[in-house]
Write a structure and sequence with these properties.
Helices cover 34% and strands 19% of the residues. The protein has helices at residues 17-27, 55-66, 82-93, 118-129, 139-145, 153-157, 201-214, 219-235, 294-302, 319-334, 347-353, 370-375, 387-395, 420-431, 448-452, 463-466, 471-480, and strands spanning 3-10, 31-43, 46-52, 73-76, 99-101, 134-135, 163-166, 175-181, 186-192, 260-264, 286-291, 307-310, 340-344, 357-360, 379-384, 400-403, 437-440, 458-461. It has a ten-stranded mixed β-sheet with strand order 3-2-1-4-5-6-7-8-9-10, sandwiched between helices.
Length: 499
């Protein structure tokens, strides 16, 4: 992968600007280059003065960077002057990579982030925005960009060629709400508002977003990733001086930093009700086979497995046959102490059968009656493949979450790239300890130890069991594998309770 380019001002205390952008990219494992547009006089107490770099120097610096190749993405922050803005606009207009513009107009203390005539600067900024794939204003910036007209997502999107992320750090209430819209979908990203604000949040957010776009993620996944990184950065801000702390660009996120995501209608402002948490799993999940019929469920329970999913593909059985399969699988689970039999997708039939739990994909979250599932006492598992799906899963407070596909799988067409072990480990840390994490997708006996080493709570398999020449031997081998942190097997302890 090539490099990312930040075009922004320089902060001498490294809380914002190009150094914050480069730190955010380094934390994401990305290489960055920078062109400084303005020098500043500031410290932890705030911005005091902005000295724009000459437009000719900016032009020459941008052309020099190009000699090392085209950037994979560009993030534009503070530009300092209308003249510099025009040079930056000419530069990005001929690039084909994603362009993210963070329209920095003023510092938190009210000091203008540019010199010269304000009207000329704003006109030049609007010219730059026409070449932006994503624009990331906060509420005060959005008001200025729209000439104090009502702030709406369509109006902001009309300023650029792509999507908008309206950041909610300047809003009120106990939660910080960002709105993400690309003209087809709108999402509400919400996270707890931390009591003390931090310097550089906008820079880290837009840099992380640009880094995700460079990797091929869409704006919703990019915004979700940026949100969790900034929330962690605020929670673990770096203190340097008596003023505001600096957003920690490399802070490690965990479950307390996860945002919630709700798909919304543009213009909607009501806060979605907080989801009541689903009941927790009854015990450790451990080895978790996913099988196509009740006979397999019965067989696996007899071999010592205690967490099983019945996944009957839609349309393969008639209504009565499907109901009979679910009833039979649920009855088999009830007959075995400690068994956790999960039904995939068919939530109405699962409620009717009195199932232990249901597993739903992301698309099912928008149509299933989650309240009915909670009221019936069923556990809920949710699949997640991307940062935005992690935030959507967190919004419904399930009993467990699944991450995958870890490896390529041929069982069904997937629109997601394999997660891989490095990302699996990072995402597992983000979910825990709030949720047990199930890894799924392309896992076999040889790969399972590496998956366990990522810290997951459960390993789910499909073909590794159902297509095995000797399924019972394979199952017993999986059950014998132990989580690296598990202690010795106690006398009489069920193998299925192992992690």
């Amino acid at each position: 992968m090539g490099y990312l380019l930040t075009i922004a001002g320089h902060d001498p205390v490294h809380g914002a600007g190009v150094t914050a952008d480069l730190a955010a990219w380094a934390a994401m494992g990305l290489d960055g280059a920078s062109v400084v547009t303005a020098l500043t006089v500031q410290n932890s107490s705030g911005l005091r003065r902005v000295e724009p770099v000459s437009a000719m120097l900016v032009r020459d610096a941008l052309q020099a960077v190009l000699l090392d190749g085209e950037p994979m993405a560009i993030k534009v922050g503070m530009t300092g002057s209308a003249a510099v803005l025009r040079e930056v606009t000419d530069f990005v207009a001929t690039r084909r990579c994603p362009v993210v513009v963070d329209p920095v107009l003023a510092a938190s203390n009210g000091q203008a982030a540019h010199g010269g005539d304000a009207a000329a600067f704003l006109a030049a900024l609007r010219g730059l925005l026409r070449h932006a794939d994503v624009v990331t204003p906060n509420l005060p910036e959005a008001l200025v960009l729209l000439d104090d007209a009502p702030v709406t997502l369509p109006a902001l999107r009309a300023l650029c060629r792509g999507a908008v992320v309206l950041k909610g750090g300047h809003g009120g209430g106990s939660r910080s709400v960002d709105w993400v819209a690309d003209g087809q979908r709108t999402a509400r990203l919400s996270s707890p508002r931390w009591p003390e604000p931090a310097h550089g949040t906008g820079c880290v957010f837009s840099a992380a977003l640009a880094g995700m776009l460079a990797r091929g993620w869409d704006v919703f996944d990019a915004a979700a990733e940026a949100k969790v990184r900034v929330t962690a950065g605020i929670a673990r801000a770096r203190r340097q001086g008596p003023g505001r702390p600096h957003t920690h660009a490399a802070a490690q996120a965990d479950a307390t930093h996860l945002p919630t995501l709700h798909w919304a209608v543009e213009g909607a402002t009501a806060e979605p009700p907080s989801a009541a948490a689903f009941a927790p799993m009854a015990g450790p999940m451990g080895f978790y086979p996913v099988v196509p019929d009740a006979a397999w469920v019965e067989r696996l329970l007899g071999w010592g497995v205690r967490t099983v999913q019945l996944r009957v593909k839609a349309g393969t059985l008639g209504d009565e046959a499907l109901r009979a399969e679910i009833d039979r699988a649920v009855a088999a689970g009830r007959a075995v102490p400690g068994a956790q039999v999960i039904v995939n997708d068919h939530w109405r039939l699962a409620i009717a059968a009195g199932a232990f739990g249901v597993h739903l994909g992301q698309e099912d979250l928008e149509t299933a009656d989650l309240g009915a599932l909670r009221h019936a006492g069923l556990r809920l598992g949710v699949s997640s493949h991307t940062p935005s799906e992690m935030a959507r899963a967190h919004a419904v407070a399930p009993s467990y979450v699944a991450i995958g596909p870890v490896y390529p799988t041929t069982l069904k067409a997937m629109r997601y790239e394999p997660v891989g072990l490095t990302q699996l480990a990072e995402w597992t840390r983000r979910y825990q300890p709030a949720y047990p994490v199930v890894a799924i997708g392309g896992i076999d006996l040889a790969r399972a130890p590496g998956v366990w080493a990522c810290g997951v709570d459960s390993v789910a398999v499909v073909s590794a069991v159902t297509q095995a020449a000797d399924p019972e031997a394979v199952v017993r081998a999986f059950l014998a594998q132990r989580h690296p942190d598990a202690g010795p097997l106690l006398s009489g302890e069920s193998l299925s309770a192992e992690r």
